[in-house]
Amino acid sequence: MRYVISSLLWSLAACAAEPRFSAELVFPLEHWHNHSSSVVELPNGDLLVCWYNGSGERRADDVKVEAARLRRGSRQWGTRFTLADTPNFPDTNPALFVDSKKRLWLIWALIVANEWHTASLQYRITSSYPDHTARPRWDLAEPLLFIPRNFAEKVKERLTPALAGALELRGKLWLETMLARAGDKYFSRMGWMPRVHPLELPSGRILVPLYSDGYDFSLIAISDDGGAHWTTSEPLVSYGGVQPSLVRKRDGTLVAYMRDNGPPPKRVLTSRSKDEGMTWSPVADTDIPNPGSSLEVVALKDGTWAMVYNDTESGRHSLVAALSDDEGQTWKWKRHLELDTREKGAGSFHYPSVIQTHDGLLHVTYSYFLNHLPEGAPRKSIKHATFNVEWVRQGDGP
Q1: CB 34 within 8 A of CB 382
Q2: Taking all residues of the chain, what is their mean pLDDT, rounded to a whole number?
Q3: Farthest-apart Cα atoms in the chain, separation
Q4: Mind giving me the DSSP string for 92-142?
Q5: Do residues 6 and 367 touch, judged by C-beta distance below 8 A?
Q6: Which residues pair with 254 in a beta bridge?
Q7: Residue 167's pLDDT band (boundaries 50, 70, 90)?
Q8: Residues 271, 254: Cα–Cα separation, whole Å
Q9: DSSP string covering 232-246, please?
């Protein structure tokens, strides 16, 4: 009860708050590869963040999912611990989620044969929250299996017309490959990976946004019984629209914002669903730049939308938070979380994970790479930033 009252007081204070910002590394810089974090607020107000760690990515068999916990009211992250580790296989791209029943979910990609398209989707659920340095005691731990809905039909429907008009050889070969894979059971059922938070709808439906490097487009896993059974949306077929982030409008329309892995212009891609995620409109460009890097969009309690993304067409040296008061039609306010003006690639700040906690504050964790440091020097970590909407609205200033 004290936590509920405290959260309410924080929320009231936030309405008239002064701009607020703080940031810190979750752990000191190190030479290990630390990437693709996900953060959630636990029922007691603690923060939990996880990421994958190892000597590389899909080709490094020592990669595991690590985590750390920030106790409510503390300024220092607790000791790291292992959240998932499949011996001799890379565990990558974790996504955390706390559902309406206060159950903690971990969803991640187990890479079977050192290629992204061999990913086997895994998930775990728990209702218990042990000591802050210990891994949860999982109530469920299974592969997340499904047969994609109307997959071959929709891939062919969207891509076949483009093949007839394809003039450039590389584009034609890509289309032919995707069409050949459309009916392949292996490629359609394997290789799907998470990246950002799942979304629970008022109906109780849980949507897990997924993407495949085997196809270079997206899909949504769907459960209407709390994770006991799974189906999917129809595929969000596009030329490189991956790592979808889902947000719900007041009228129930779902909007997916996606990273652009396709040809120029490099823009955030978008699609809409009016049937709780089953079918999606054709994927289209927005006017928001994207360098081929993950982003996340969340709806705040007051109806404002917040997006954290790399606001460039090339490079990940600039990371911004933006706000929209008209459900994504315009993004009127923007402020940098990171901006490195040195030579391109010196600093890389990317793959944000975004939440709003009960006190109204926004929390973002992201990969923090100082690439200009000598090879072998400690230069990678996960960074955590805390701020309010007033800080974003203030802008970068002079």
Answers
A1: yes
A2: 93
A3: 65
A4: EEEEEEE-TT--EEEEEEEESSSSGGGEEEEEEEES----TTS----SEEE
A5: no
A6: 248, 273
A7: low
A8: 8
A9: EPPPB--SSEEEEEE
The string of DSSP letters for 132-195 reads TTS----SEEEE-----TTHHHHHHHHHHHHHHT--SHHHHHHHHHHHHHHT-HHHHHS-EE--
> What is the tens place of the pLDDT at every residue in 269-304?
999 999 999 999 999 999 999 999 999 999 999 999
Tell me: pLDDT of 131 over 80: no
Find the mean pLDDT for residues 121-128: 96
- Give residue-wise pLDDT tens across range 80-108: 999 999 999 999 999 999 999 999 999 99
β-strand partners of 38: 50
**Total residues belonging to the chain:** 398
Rounded to whole angstroms, the Cα distance separating 380 from 369 reads 5
Query: Is the link from the previous residue into 265 a cis peptide, with omega within 30 of 0?
Result: yes
Integer Cα distance of 217 and 219 in angstroms: 7
Alpha-carbon distance of 353 to 337, in angstroms, equals 13
The dihedral through the CA atoms of 377, 32, 363, 389 has a sign that is positive
Q: Is 343 helix (H, G, I), strand (E, B) or coil?
A: coil
Instruction: Answer whether residue 26 shows pLDDT above 50.
Output: yes
What string of DSSP letters covers 237-283? --SSEEEEEEEE-TTS-EEEEEEE-SSSS-EEEEEEESSTTSS-PPP
Q: Tens of pLDDT along 333-371?
A: 999 999 998 877 789 999 999 999 999 999 999 999 999
Q: Which among 297, 248, 250, 294 is positioned nearest to 273, based on CA atoms?
A: 248
60, pLDDT greater than 90: yes
Q: Which of 328, 354, 330 is nearest to 251 (CA)?
A: 328
β partners of residue 294: none
CA 347, chain centre distance (Å): 20
Tokens 């069409």 belong to residue: 179
The strand pairing partners of 92, in sequence order, are: 109
